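User: I'm putting together a teaching handout on how sequence relates to shape, and I'd like one worked example. Could you take DUF2075 domain-containing protein from Streptomyces tubbatahanensis, show the sequence you're using, and then write out its predicted structure as tokens right after it?

Assistant: Happy to. First the sequence, then the structure tokens directly below it.
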Amino acid sequence: MLLLKLSAADLLTLDERHRMVPHLAARWKHFREKDVSDTEREAWAESLVALARAMVDADRGHVEMVVECSAAIDESVTPKNAPTIDVVLLGRHPETQGLSVQLVELKRWSTVTRVEAATAELVSVPGMSKPKKHPALQLGATFETFAGVSGPLHGLTFECGGFAYLHNATENSVKPLLGFDAPTGAYSHVYTGDRHNQLMSDLRKHFGEDSGYSYAEILLDKMNLRNTPLLDAMIMSRGEDTVFTLRGRQKEVAEHVRQRAAYVFDDQGEAGRRAVFVVTGGAGTGKSAIGLQLKAEFEAAGREVRYASGSRAFNGAMKHHVGYGNTQFKESFTYFSSYITPPAEPLDVLLCDEAHRLRDRSTNHRLPPEKQGIKPQVEELLDASRLTVFFLDEGQSVRPNEVGTVELIKDAAERRGTPVVSYDLRAQYRCGGSDAYVRWVRDLLNPSETVHKWVPDGLMHIEVVDSPEEMERIIYHEAHAGASARMVAGFCWPWNKPRGDARHLEADVRIGDWHRPWNADSEQYCENGSVPPSKIWSVHEAGLGQIGCVYTAQGLEWDWCGVIMGEDMVWRNDRWVFRRGKWKKDKETKVKRVATPGSLDDEVRRKTLDTAQFETCVRNAYHVLLTRASRATVLYSTDEETREHLRELAGDVHLHGLRPSRENLPPDLRIPHQKRPERGKTGKNRAGKTGSLNSQMPLF
């Protein structure tokens, strides 16, 4: 748990805009599940600002402040009751040039008195009914939780200390805290309002001048707020023992599936036992991580497992990037439409990801009409396996023929007499772990009477640009620095097929003089082999030069994502206006171009789709695109009024060091993204592997 990560200078700017305290209060409620008290609000407004001003006065405004931070990374200590430190200061030490950490307790006390003459460990504070511990004791205990065996700083080399800042007090008014018998040590320093100069001097001793690096990222990484990207984790594990760190509710879901599996697969039990799980959750809540971890565990136990998806982009990345050269691994990833004809013997386990993309009926363009699906697709999937797990987010359904809902799955299972167990995931692990960003996206696309402006939290970054050229410069800069990055857009331009022997791509996405192609609408390489097919556009190095859409982005993530909003969703006065577009074909070139601006997705813009359904599909598509980034989203709209609206909600990004450029990461955190494995280098063969499910693959 942490409420905010910003430099001292940025925190002051945020406070000047009257956005700091509302943001902290919203984050507090998210974690604590209750409203913050007025007293706490006043303390934030007064004490955090006082500390930030001292940092700036000491010419250390670049030092980062992590506010209300819990050291607990053990799920047994839930966010609702996790103890926190007021502020963790992180920067570069002026002598060692390494990480420097100061733990800070902020007190608004103006005076204290001893409780007992013999000790200074307890003091009385006017207005408080119970005695309070000397802040040094609290800071010492906090250090143990941060640097102890289970703490986020364990194993790191760093300089650390701590102090209490009583900005309302004078040295004379809090003498019991400063006496000869007061606690001593690196965490016993006490600064008062009249010791401002001493505080500034000591801050300069603890922190050097600005190096350009974000040292707070070291703490966030150790707190598991910067997760290993899904595809990187799969490649590092070579498709076998995945390295996802399942946490909290994710662990509960996985454990309950294992327990139910033991019942279903019990050789002593009745034949034909089946079970169905439905796991719901928004983008980035860990649905795929759970599914892929379970896949690996069940395979290690010798079970017949398949991983089905409704996303060609996700399957393509798994089969042709992670599983390159490993036929067995590739064949374990299938589509929902792969089960028109059920297996001769039911699979042991079928894991259905992106299940909101279930179709009413299965269709396969490679099969003749008599072999197309004749019953609901969900029934085909239930028939195919003894244990079926569905993962879905109904807010990501982007086509009218996508019918996957919790109700649909439950009804189908219950008609078979199969029990259904449901789970809902809420904790956010993508988008930098920023629930504030997820709420901002939701409020942006579904506005209420209250306008919610973005408040920088140091976990996720948003900026609105004035042109596609500016967006492209940012995305290319980050990609060349080593970040994963892509540009995507609403489906507002025609999508021409590759032409000629060279499979030339038309520059379909046209904004003024800026013209770029969509990702290739092809199963083959295009442009004389220099442009990847659509199934691996999201992960191929050469995919950066094309624009993706919701169908090639869904289920995947990048560090940086540039999102172009087209004319299908524009802001007018106080609401979103949704438009259906039209295209025309040039008589000479036979190339399709925009005739009427708006949605050009043939499945969505058709007249048979009513207005409410059309708006839902467009809105959900942008929700998918806006939640693909793990560090930063760059926004651009082709409509000027919409751009102004986005800029008003996103705010000004011209704050010190706010853009989380990869170049600002400490070198040790610039871990290269994994390249496609070499052929034949995807791990040992699983054939014939048996064993106990619970003894094979521990969750890290």
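A couple of points you could highlight for students: The longest helix spans residues 38-57. Residues 101 and 160 are 5 Å apart (CA to CA).
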